[in-house]
Amino acid sequence: MNIGIDRLSFYTSNYYVDLKTLAEARSVDPDKYYIGIGQEKMGIPPPDEDVVTLAASAAYPLMRDGELDGVELLLFATESGIDQSKAAGIYVHGLLEMSPRCRTVELKQACYSGTAALQLAIGFVARNPGKKALVISSDIARYELGSPGEATQGCGAVAMLVSANPRLVAIEPESGYYTEDVMDFWRPNYRSEALVDGKYSTMVYIHALLESWKQYAELTDRTLTDFDRFCYHIPFTKMAEKAHQKLSRKLKSPIEKAEIAGLLEGSLRYSRITGNCYAGSMYVGLASLLDTDGEDLTNKRIGLYSYGSGCVGEFFSGVVQPGYREVLYADQHRNLLENRTELTYQQYEDIFNYGVPVDGGEYVFPQYKTGPFRFSGISQHKREYESLVD
Ligand code: COA
Question: Hey, how many other C-beta atoms are within 10 angstroms of the C-beta on 217?
Fold first, then answer.
């Protein structure tokens, strides 16, 4: 029995900063961002978006299409948690009017937790083949103003329906995974911005890739030529390209730039203009690949590498299913990405500095352009959400 991703829906905020604007403000050559790290725009969440509204808006098309009926497991992956106790997924469960007969929990391991959630959901379906699970990875990548990580900020969420006989991508059972206790990126509970040893994090990312690949290759006897496309965790698109180059070199099959583009480009398009979505980032890449790759990917094998600082890496694979194009949300994704509003530098800084109040008072947030749900205010330390759909 095949198990895997049956539907895949992506959402990001309706606002972005062009990295040319940031480059000007930081007196940096824009090519450092456009070419050096391979990023053009970063998605910025307005004050009335948070990981809950990003997630609920990502999953809304599934709700609208009746795909959430009978879902009994909701796994919410994030490293932008809004509460130390309550799972953010429970707000999402409520906004999406899901059945009370549902297990809902939040998972954390930096940018890796979406993959942990996907693998756990696959285990759930293996035990209950008639049942479905909803996995949502939702994050806001936030670094200090003026820091090296600033240009890699972004936001977004990916909702994936996991089932038997999936219509999009069957996930293959073999997997290589690797854990090591390192401090390359972390965010203590008292901080709203991450701390990062950026260069070190790129090295650990590669090390975990090589270790994960080694296990995967031993389990499957596959080589790089057994794959038609690759999707990497994408903190910035250049990182994914470099990772593939390093893996190819390590396996003594060095690869030309043009060849890398053929294998990876489809997966990089959305991330280049939304920025890092942390736990959702590799799945934004998968959505981008399935939506935009010009070739018919039916029966093609995709190599998937997920990485979360701290750190855990996992290399696994999936096979694209016949008829996949009929169940994509490609038009909706294109619409969203083409109709976002550009922010000036000052608007960006104002939004960046608009913190969520922590004094337990009564607050109503200004209404920006959002998806079907918004974070409308806060009252007595309780977050309030509003549905904009009937
Ligand atoms: N034109 C073209 N390229 C340029 C350039 C220009 N004018 N100026 C700089 N570059 C290139 C650099 O040569 C470098 O390329 P290289 O890595 O191939 O050598 C690249 O742009 C980045 O420049 P660098 O000076 O190394 O950037 P930085 O140190 O300011 O920031 C990170 C890079 C990755 C450290 C930073 O973005 C970061 O901390 N990111 C967050 C953490 C992260 O995403 N980690 C990834 C693993 S999860």
Answer: 17
